Amino acid sequence: MTVSQCLPDFLVYNKEIYEFLLAVREKCIRNNYTKIASVSLEINLVDPLVLLAKLAQQHQVSFYWENQANKESIVAIDAVAKLEVSGKERFDKAEKFIKDCLSNIVEFGWDKVEFSQPHFYCGFGFFEDNLQQDYPFAASTIFLPSWQVAVKDKRCRLVANLVVNADTNINVILQVLWTKIEIIQSLAYYSSNTASTYDNSQRRFNKESIANPEKFKNSVKSALKSIESNRFSKIVLADILDIRSATIFNLFKSLHNLRQLHPNCCIFSISNGKGQNFIGASPERLISIHKQQLITDALAGSAPRGKTPQEDSANANLLLNSEKERHEHSLVIDFITQQLSKLGLLPQILAPRLRQLSNIQHLWTPIQATVPSNVHPLQIVAQLHPTPAVAGCDRDLACAEIRRYESFERGLYAAPLGWVDASGNCEFIVGIRSALIDGDKARLYAGAGIVAGSDPNKELAEIQLKFQALLKALI
After folding, report:
1. Is residue 142 domain-resident?
2. Which CATH number covers residue 112?
3. Pfam families attached here (predicted)?
4. Cα(58)–Cα(424) distance, rounded to whole angstroms?
5. Do 218 and 180 share a domain, yes or no?
6. What pTM was estimated for this model as a whole?
7. Residue 189: its pLDDT value, please?
8. What is the pLDDT of residues 185-200, one digit of tens each?
9. Which of 158, 174, 197 is where one domain is finished?
10. Are the beta carbons of 436 and 251 closer than 8 angstroms?
């Protein structure tokens, strides 16, 4: 799309949009209802992270997503419709919310190009309810954004979701649309190098591990006794690291650092519209569905990367041949295949491999399946979350024990975060390698899977290693 320099030209070049909105308003007048007009346009290439930095306001919800492996990044700002819900039926209520919104949308410019349709952005907490009332995110949040800009394979798409009713002034909302396009396109010359304009001096932190090392190791020892007595076979215990900075954290810089440090992870940021952001670089996909083809990851079993190629190879071989790590990994594979089968899917287990990140490596087995048209993506999310990779086995008992051992609210940590589009495509990751940012404060999260044979000292070393992924980005 060529951006013109004044509104009259915009109306000339986009007469169809004007007539489309007029037609929507006429139907609203005749039927006395309100509709959401979803306008999709191709625009000049722009970095969605720059848009997040320049356009997102503290009082607005927002969502940022970048997957360099898929050559895609998305920013969604403000909500035209939003649901916050908790309880056992939260996934069902979220599915209904999405379907109700879709039935109320009238589209313009949708085509077969990816991200030409509106997306619904989701943050489901680890637990169905928050026990700590001051935790800043709802147990589940789903929203349809006012503005969505996505880049896929170097093509950029804007989706504007506009409320239209009998009283809507079409010229006014066109002016709003045009002004937004002008602002977005004025940022097209910015790039990720914009991050270099921010202060890169060494940031000063005060650090305090709330659950101190000895307490964490004691929790591991207690869990091992429960495993030995066959109460459960695995539990994932997490710890937090609270830090305070001498200055307010720069969200843009932190996310830019994450995408440079972890190009093979999914970089994400969710804002609650109250000034807090949950960010991270997740290596773990929960589910991806594209044209009814699902792929999910069994990711469990860890080892550090080596400082030399020889050490790295030796660590990888130890991981691949570790009975303890392979047992932990097999628990996840078995769980995922069983849960998918309960929905009538026929999961296929692909060849196992290593998932090697900058400072850690995991045992990784992709699993794929075809999704019937009558199975909504959120039904699958509900069935899979939480996997043994972030909770344990037996799942319900492990979750109850997690709340007994952990004195903090997990919230969005290790929880399903992602999007669903109008055609049932979706991407959800597990919110690990993550941090809650609130002004000059940050809370970092990391966890480790405890099974028979776990060593408390090694499990502590593992979560300390995982903390580093976020610490480097925040510095």
Report:
1. yes
2. 3.60.120.10
3. Chorismate_bind (PF00425)
4. 30
5. no
6. 0.91
7. 62
8. 888 766 555 544 444 4
9. 197
10. no
CA 65 to chain centre: 7
Q: Identify the CA nearest to 463 among candidates 277, 204, 125, 217.
A: 217
d(CA 234, CA 251): 35
- Of residues 149 and 328, more confidence is placed in 149
**How many domains does the chain contain in total?**
2
The tokens for 85 are 């819900």
Q: Are residues 242 and 111 in the same domain?
A: no
Owning domain of residue 453:
205-474
Both 187 and 217 in one domain: the answer is: no
Asked about 114 being catalytic, the answer comes back as: no
Q: Given 143, 166, 197, which residue is the final one in a domain?
A: 197
Rounded Cα gap, residues 355 and 362, in angstroms: 5
Contact 210, 238 (CB under 8 A): no
For 119-204, strand residue ranges (E) read 119-124, 140-152, 155-164
Percent of all residues in the chain with a pLDDT value above 70, rounded to a whole number? 92
Residue 2 lies in a domain: no
Catalytic residue selected from 35, 234, 253, 466: 234
> What's the confidence (pLDDT) of residue 4?
41
Active site residue 284: yes
Q: 207 pLDDT band (50/70/90 cuts)?
A: low
* Catalytic, out of 284, 401, 459, 462: 284
